[in-house]
Each structure stands twice: as structure tokens, then as C-alpha cells.
Amino acid sequence: MSRRLQIPGEREQAELIAACQRALELSKTPGSCEAWPEPDSYLAADQALLGLPVEAAALEALWTLQNPDLGFPVCPGSPSCVDTSAKVWAALRLSGVTRGRLAQLGAAVRSMGGVDAFHELTKTEWALAGLIPPDRVAPSASPAAFVLQSRDRAGAGRLTLDLAEIGGCGQPAAPKATGLKAWWARALGKRHRAIPTLLDDLRREALGGSVLDPRTRAAWLAAACAGRKLDPPQPTPPPAHDEWFQSGVDATLAVQQPDGCWRDGEGAIHGTWRALAALRCGGYDDREAEVLRGGEWLRSTQNADGGWSEDSASTVSHTAWAVMGLIEGGDPTSESVTKGIEFLLARQTPEGWWRERAWTRIICPGLAYARDEARCHRDAVQAIEKFMQATIRGTNG
Predict the structure, then answer these.
(1) Which of 62, 158, 248, 342 is at a distance of 20 to 30 A from 333, taking alpha carbons?
(2) Secondary structure (3-state) at 362
């Protein structure tokens, strides 16, 4: 006899499993969906700052992301960010846009603190591109910053912008035309034995990275300044940031937060799911206190609509991660899980897709996010499959 679940719609367990099966069948050959009208990232602006070719229409589309206060958010729905706003301003200025609307954006950047308020990664990138003097960047041990600090001037005179409009100093004078190899040999060649290692580090950071990641862009610019010719970084988002869970059970337990969650580069919900999965793979008992605390944290953060999110409105990906986290923690049939599954089923489109307008892909915490619809779809499918496997196994066992 099937158990009655206290969830919206009060579906019987067998009916819920059947609905999951139908959803999975529909997801195997989904129909086409109309694209969202707004961009899924600031890719166009990122490419423009690197001097790569960008279609004017892609830059123009960025205006759809502007906040009412005339600044630009890191991701839609968040407050305006000085780094993001300045990036859009610079990209449009470099493309030749001179309209009054851009002057208003410059005023918004000034109101947020201008260049002085930039994140250090942004300052490093802009200095390497020749937009601000190198001395505006704090000393750093990163390979990109080391290259920057070893030059009298950054860039090669390629970019010229009047930064007074956004509350910054003017364009530094272009270096003399002595060639990149000449300055590299003069500045570092005879007094720094770690140059080969430094260049290898730059190459690793730049190759295979995402142009959406400011760390990759800085490494690519630094490699170019060092005379290394590399292909431009790819526009695709990088893989999820969960590598540190591979170091073992003890290491995973050591970084659990006081409230019971784990945090990684994708946030607390993603981090808690990956940690609980790692502990399960490591043979850790799901009745242990750390696992129970992780599950309790996930249940406590569930929204009233049955979904999860890192801030306000529930998203497909965050809900899928939370559901999988609870299942990995030994809680496959609780009310929290079934409500989460109901949320996912309700968010599937008639064409079979799971789509998410929110930018749930964290490229660089606090600086770069993106929408990744293919990943959102995979997350939902994976969560429903895990739920069905756990439920059917529990019913048969």
C-alpha cells in the first residue's frame, strides 16, 4: 500500500513516481524553446576588454541588464556592482559608443566609488590592458600581478579611455616601442630565475579557462605581455568548483561550517550537496552527527514553494542540488525531498526542458555569474533520477 505524502497536491507515492517517469521520458527528446531576450552573461563586454571582435548587437543587448539606478548587477536581481558597471562602460566606450546614456552610466560608476572601489582582480586586468597605471594595483603573489609589477607601464598603448568619466585617473602614457620581448628580458630576464615557472603558471591559468572568469582574462593578458602567444580563452563557463572535496573524508569534515553547511565556489547549497556525496562515497555513516547537521541545514533553508535558492526566488539548479544533498545524506523520502521534486516537476516546460532565467553558474564569487541552461536541465534530470532510484530501492527493500 502506497504512503500518502503531505505535499502540495497530496500525491500518492506511486503517482509521484509515475509523474517523475513521464517527466524523464519527455526530457529525453525536448522540443525547441524560444531564447530569452536578455544575455546570459557579460561575455560581450569581457571579450571587448580583451580586444577580441564583438558584434555591436551583443554589446547593445547588455542594456537590458541595467538596473533602475543606472548601474549593472553581477547577476540579474542583485544590486548594482561597480566592477560590472565599469566593465560595461569600458566595453561600450571601446566600441565607439558616445551617447548620453553611457555618460549616465559613468556617473553611476562614480557614485559607487569609481576605480578606487574596484576589486583587485579588476584592477589587475585593467592595468594589464593599459587602462590604468600599474601602481593602482596592490602587491600580489599571482603570476599576472607579478608581470604587471615588473613593468614600468602596463599594456601597449592599444586602449585609450578617459577614465575621468568614471572617477579614475587618465590613460597612462604608452611605453616606448621597444617590443614585448625586449622589456621582458630587461625587466626580468637577468634577475628572476623563476621566469620559466612563472610563464608555465600563466599558461595553465589562461589555457582552457573561461573568458567569463576575470582570473583567466588577467592570466591571458599577462601571458601576452610576457610575449607568449596563446589562443583566446573560451566563452564557455568553467566546471563546477568542487575539486577540494576530492581530498578525503577528514578534509571534508574539517571545513564544515558551524551551521552545518559546506561552502564551495558554487555556494552553500552546492557545497553541502557535494560534501554529503563525498562522505557517502567515503563510506561515512549517514547517521553520523556531521551528516545529520548537513541535512538539517538543507531542510531549514527550503523555501515555502518547495524549492531552494541562495538568496530569494527558488531556482531549478539550487533545488536539484538540495534534493540530491538530502538523498546523499540518507533522507530520500522526507517531506522536504518530495516537495522539492514537486517543485522541479512543476518547472518543466511543455517541451520537456528545465530552464532557468536566474544566473546560477558562479564563475568567480562576487564578480562573475552566468546562466547555464544546459546545466540546469542536467541538474533537474539527475535529481529526479536519484529520487526515483532511492524511492524504488526503499520500496523494494
Answers:
(1) 248
(2) strand
Whether 242 and 328 have beta carbons less than 8 Å apart is answered as no
What per-residue confidence (pLDDT) applies to 6?
44
Q: What is the pTM of this model?
A: 0.83
- How confident is the model over 280-296, as pLDDT tens digits? 988 888 889 999 999 99
- How many domains does the chain divide into? 2
Kindly give the pairing relationship between strand 361-364 and strand 368-370: antiparallel
Q: Which of these three, 192, 225, 258, is where a domain ends?
A: 225
Which residues are bridge partners to 73 per DSSP?
A: 80
The domain of 275 spans 13-33+239-396
Predicted pLDDT at 240? 63
Distance CA 329, CA 360 (A): 23
Q: Residues 336, 202: one domain?
A: no
**Structural domain includes residue 367:** yes
Instruction: Give yes or no: residues 176 and 50 share one domain.
Output: yes
Asked whether residue 191 carries a pLDDT value surpassing 50, the answer given is no
Cβ–Cβ under 8 Å, residues 256 and 271: no
Q: Looking at the structure, do residues 301 and 371 belong to the same domain, yes or no?
A: yes
For cell 557545497, the residue is 271
* Range with the poorest average pLDDT among 48-52, 247-251, 356-360: 247-251
Question: Which of the residue ranges 3-17, 117-131, 224-238, 315-329 would you say has the lowest mean pLDDT?
Answer: 3-17
Q: State the CB neighbour count (10 A cutoff) for residue 292.
A: 15
Same domain, 172 and 52: yes
Contacts of 142 (CB under 8 A, 6+ apart): 124, 218
Q: Which of 1-10, 187-196, 365-374 has the lowest mean pLDDT?
A: 1-10
